[in-house]
């Protein structure tokens, strides 16, 4: 009977560790995804706000008088 209780306690301890590690992995994955999304948004913002070359501006002709 003693061995059975010991094995049950070991299984419960192992199950708690598995749940804890799973939760840590989920939290880490969410944090990583958030950082990736923020990095992507920052790159898009930099690209949008980048200085344009003078030659790249569209040339509009003014009507001559």
TrEMBL record:
InterPro entries: Ribosomal_mL52. It holds the Pfam family MRPL52. This is Large ribosomal subunit protein mL52. It is found in: Mitochondrion. Residues 40-65 are annotated as: Disordered. Keywords: Mitochondrion, Ribonucleoprotein, Ribosomal protein, Transit peptide. Belongs to the mitochondrion-specific ribosomal protein mL52 family. One of its GO terms (molecular function) is structural constituent of ribosome. The lineage of its organism: Eukaryota, Metazoa, Chordata, Craniata, Vertebrata. Signal peptide: none annotated. GO terms for biological process: mitochondrial translation. GO terms for cellular component: mitochondrial large ribosomal subunit.
């Amino acid at each position: 009977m003693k061995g059975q209780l010991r094995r049950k306690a070991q299984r419960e301890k192992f199950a708690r560790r598995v749940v804890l590690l799973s939760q840590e992995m989920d939290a880490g994955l969410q944090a990583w995804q958030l950082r990736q999304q923020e990095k992507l948004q920052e790159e898009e913002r930099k690209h949008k706000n980048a200085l344009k070359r003078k030659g790249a501006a569209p040339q509009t002709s003014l009507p001559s008088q």
